[in-house]
Every structure is written in structure tokens, then in C-alpha cells.
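Problem: given the chain below (79 residues), write out its structure.
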Amino acid sequence: MGSLDMVTYFISVVKDTQEIRDQQLARVEQYQQLADQMTEEATGAIAGLRLLQGKLDSVEAEAVLQKFLDEVDNYGATH
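Solution.
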């Protein structure tokens, strides 16, 4: 392998490595956006639970809260 061939090969390896890195960075950005979205949704759910918890005045309200918590658990198990 001549020195020009080696340089050409090295350049191609560097380009391939950069492309892989760029793809991985894009994937990381997608995961970060998904994590941010999930955090926002969880924060909203927690705020809703706190609001509901503050209004618990009866056994019926506790049953409604338990049903909601069960639905949250089921959603988390299926998504």
C-alpha cells in the first residue's frame, strides 16, 4: 500500500468515524428531548395528584385517587 493509499484510507476512516459520531449525537439529542417531555408530563401528573390529594374529603375521593393511581401504574407498565 503506497503512502497516498494510506492517507486516502485514513481520511475515509476519519470521515466514517465522524458520521457515526454525528448519528450518535443526533440519537442522544432525541433521547434528551424524550426525557424532557417525559419529565414535563410527570411533573404535570404530580401537580395534579397534589391538587387532588389536597381536596380529599371523603372515602369516595380516596377511591377516585386510587383509580387514578392504578391507571398511572398501568400506563407506565404499557409505555
